[in-house]
Amino acid sequence: MSFEGLSIGLFGGSFNPAHAGHMHVATQGLQAFQLDQIWWMVSPQNPLKPKQPSYSTRVATVEKLGLPYRMRISHMESNFGTQYTIDTLKAARKKFPSTRFVFLMGADNLLQFPKWRDWKGIMNTVPVGVIARPGKNNTALRARLGKTASVFRYARISEYEAGSLQHYEAPAWCYVTPPLNKLSSSAIRTKNV
Question: How far apart are alpha carbons 137 and 146 in whole angstroms?
């Protein structure tokens, strides 16, 4: 299957478990950034979260969501044998040189992004689309004022230009504020304990 010329949102995470809040972020990212597809990339092993259920268990939680047309699970990280987002993005750009990738994340991840390996390299590899998420202690505001936002303030495009993010060369990022969905994986895990 050829992905040449397509704009694809790469939506990575542990998905422990995947839930309607994740689907909300993916759907909002698809619409706001006018992407052709969203690829859900389940992390085989998130280095920041060492204790997780198996990869196949977490993939199954994404499958249970019943991904709509234009969304699919990608086993890219597992296939590439990469553990870190920066390595996965570089491998994806090499394998699909004519595909326009946008890395998608919730605002909660933007706030802790400087903890990721080579986070500046990620910002310089593909455009990044950030979708507001509810959180404790005003996560959305803190994310927009945090280290990543400060270091890359020159590369931020306005929410009004979100649909053109896929056409920007990295570094470029955009923060969008759609209606919020309050579900979180940690709250779901707490209820299941």
Answer: 13
Higher per-residue pLDDT: 41 or 136: 41
What pTM was estimated for this model as a whole? Answer: 0.89
89 CB-near residues (< 8 Å, 6+ apart): 10, 101, 103, 122, 125, 126
pLDDT for residue 64: 96
Burial class (CB in 10 A: 0-12, 13-18, 19+), 48: exposed
Length of the chain in terms of residues written: 193
- For residue 191, pLDDT over 60 is answered with no
Nearest of 152, 142, 191 to residue 173 by alpha carbon: 152
Tell me the two tokens of residue 43. Answer: 């992390």
E-only strand ranges, 67-127: 71-74, 100-106
The full set of domain ranges for the chain reads 7-192
How many whole angstroms separate alpha carbon 160 and alpha carbon 182? 24
Q: What is the pLDDT of residue 152?
A: 98
Q: CATH assignment of 7-192?
A: 3.40.50.620
